[in-house]
Each structure stands twice: as structure tokens, then as C-alpha cells.
Amino acid sequence: MKPIIIAIDGYSSCGKSTLAKALAARFGFAYVDSGAMYRAVALYFMEQQIALEDDVAIAKALENIHIHFEYNPDQQRNETYLNNRMVEDDIRSKPVSDLVSPVATIKAVRTAMVNLQRKAAVNKAIVMDGRDIGTHVFPTADLKLFMTADPKVRATRRFAELQAKGENWSMEEVIENLRERDHIDSTREENPLRQATDAHVLDNSDLTEQEQLDKVSIWVNGLLNAKI
What we know:
Elements: E1 5-10, H1 16-27, E2 30-33, H2 34-48, H3 55-63, E3 67-72, E4 77-82, E5 85-86, H4 94-104, H5 107-120, E6 126-130, H6 133-137, E7 143-148, H7 151-164, H8 171-187, E8 200-203, H9 209-227
């Protein structure tokens, strides 16, 4: 597979990871969940009680953080490993969800994660989703998507996802968490969430997962045909 980069950005709970995984599976691309990287850092900071205002402690902590992904065929999912410990479920917990956006505003954290993300794409066909993939990590990506959806739809999807996992969130907590993350992601100083000027906008408020996959697959096929 030729080195092709598909960058997917957008708001929380718009289904970025769902689409990215589906595209990777359909076209045989590698998939990298950049959000999981930031969640792993947030989990480490939380467990090690790293203060977000302590630049020295943060720099030292980042030297001790090693993140990689492995595919679990039994669970049929990619799993995140933090220092060789599988943390896929831990990083989706409420405390981490509350902490991840503030952690992701820290310049040293973003620099470290962007370096890892760029290394992951060397000589690979890859799909990566996040907040600044098409605007900063891969500004020359072959295909850029910006995903959005009605806030009520996003909250309903997120609430159902958390319930399915046994997480004890109220709908009000979900709405507030999404609102806070959107605000932090869009207003942070370091590479805020924004739509790349050359991105395809995908509003999936009224689309099923299959419908959005089929729609984006048309764009991907066009890209692949152009590279033949």
C-alpha cells in the first residue's frame, strides 16, 4: 500500500474513531487513535499525581511514558498500552474523560504526542483521528475530514455508549462534559480544534455508521484511483 494519510478531525462524540476504524478495515490501512494517546497521558498524570501546572514534573513524566497499540482478535479491537500495561478500558473512564482536554492543552504534551503520531505514519497508509490531525499533525494529508453532528445527537450517542460499558453517567454529566471539552479543544492556545480549509465536512447527525462509511469511501476510492 502506498503511503496515504487520511486525517479525521472533529468534535467529541461525533464518531471519528468509529469511522476511522471502519475505513482502515475496509481499505487495509493502519489506524491510529490520537485521542487514546492523550487519554493515556492523562491516566498516567492522574495515577502519578502530576500537577498540570508543574512543568518540571510534566517533562520528567513524559520521558517515562511509552504508548503503543495492539490489536486484540478476541475483542476485535485495537487496545492502548501504557508502559506495556493494557489501559484501553481505564482511559475511557469518567475521571480520564474529565482530565484529558486540560492535559491536551499543555504544549509539552502536544509536542511529544505529535512526534509519536508522525512517526506512526512513516511509510504507511494510515487513518488517524483527533482534533488537529489535518491542521497541524499532517497539514498535507491526502484526504482531510472534519466531522460534526447536532449536540443533542452527540450527547445521546455518548450516553448510550457509556451505559453499554456500565459507566454511571447522567445525561446532564454527559452534556456538560461534551460542552467543556468542546470549549477547551476549540480555544486552547496550542493547535486548537478547527476545520482545515481543504477538509470535507461530514455532518453525520442523520447518517448511520454504514451510510457515513459508504459516503467517505467514495472520496477514498477517488483518492486511490488518482494515485494509480
